[in-house]
Design brief:
6 strands, elongated, about 450 residues
Amino acid sequence: MGVTDPAGPVMDRDEVDRALARLGQEHEAIETSLLALQDHAGRRLLEGAELTGVTKERWTSAEASITLLWAYFDAYTGALRSAREIRSRRRWSSREDLAELTELLRGECVTVAGQAAAAAGAPTPHGGPGRLSERFSLAALVDRMNELYATSLDMVVAADAVWSALPARIDLLAAELQRTRRLAHSVGVRPGEHPAGDDLERITRTLTRLRAEVVSDPLAYWVPTKGSSAPGGGRPDTTVYDREARALEDVRREIDAVLTVRQDAEQRLVRLRDVLSRADRTLAEARTARGEVLAKIAATEVPVVSGPPTVLQEQLATAAEYRRQAQWHRLSPLLESLEQKAEDELLRARESLTAVTAPLAVRAELRGRLDAYKAKVARHGLAEDPLLVERYDAARRMLWSAPCDLRVAEQAVLRYQQAAAELLGGGGGRIPGPRTPEDGPGSGA
């Protein structure tokens, strides 16, 4: 829409012609803008909608402003028509005509009945009480129309932008929600039985409420852009929509997990049985080994081996029952928990076997060390030395007798090593021999 600039105090004919040409262009631009506003899809939707909240309040004011705009435009049109008639009286306007035109084009010569604004419910220019009539210059009248047009168009564009963006997106999300609900129901994910079922119910309620609010009060979901002077400067507020879309995506992932359980439940149950069976066999082996250690090793504390936990077998039976009853939503978390517990149980069983058989491993290491030193002295022709034979036989009797006292046997092996070192090296050092990973403290190899 245009803006009229007042020119000098008295206008000559050329100034009048230029002013009338400018006013004609402004009139055409104003009329085009008003017709576009009248035909705007957002305005038509606002007229037919059952509005609430801030949108209802602002549309009441905007509707009154649009009505007043047409009243102002009619007054503007009338003033322009009068000026053109005066100018068309004669080719060369008289001074009286020019004075009249100057007053009409520059002065406050446009009168608008005060009841027009009152009937429309629009605010008065200065916010004061309504008057019988208002007088404007053409420039002031254009400024007033520009002000009313900007506020009205801003409201219409904002409402239309929200209506164009959110309801369609909500409908698409609601359709996806319905598909997800049907899929969830098919795998037993229902409200009150599974958290994802409760989430679906909450998302449904939220989307239903959100759509109703967006349709009746679109401006409640509009975020203006700070500092923007463009009509409808801002964006739809999609915070609630985005949150529910993310929540639905989380539910879909949960449903996918349940579907995956339905597809490979039998294989996972078979693997679980296998892991628990291996853990049971390992514990049984540890218990057998403990009896052997207690019989063969003396003065050694052997840890007690616990039995297999019955709770895991009970949970495994429950999981199998869930699969038979197609309760996939219950089976999914139970399988995940059982798989971790079964791996932990197998690890515990292996650690028990290692702890129980440690004394036997120590005895085996001492036996290997004793035989390694015997072979070494034999290579030096000292195998028949009486001291070495005596100490070897003493160590061997201790290591190959039951129960074996490991501490005493280790001392006997060390004495044999020391005697061999003295004969081979002529000193008190130990024989530098090869070490094996099993060599422990006191090893001479």
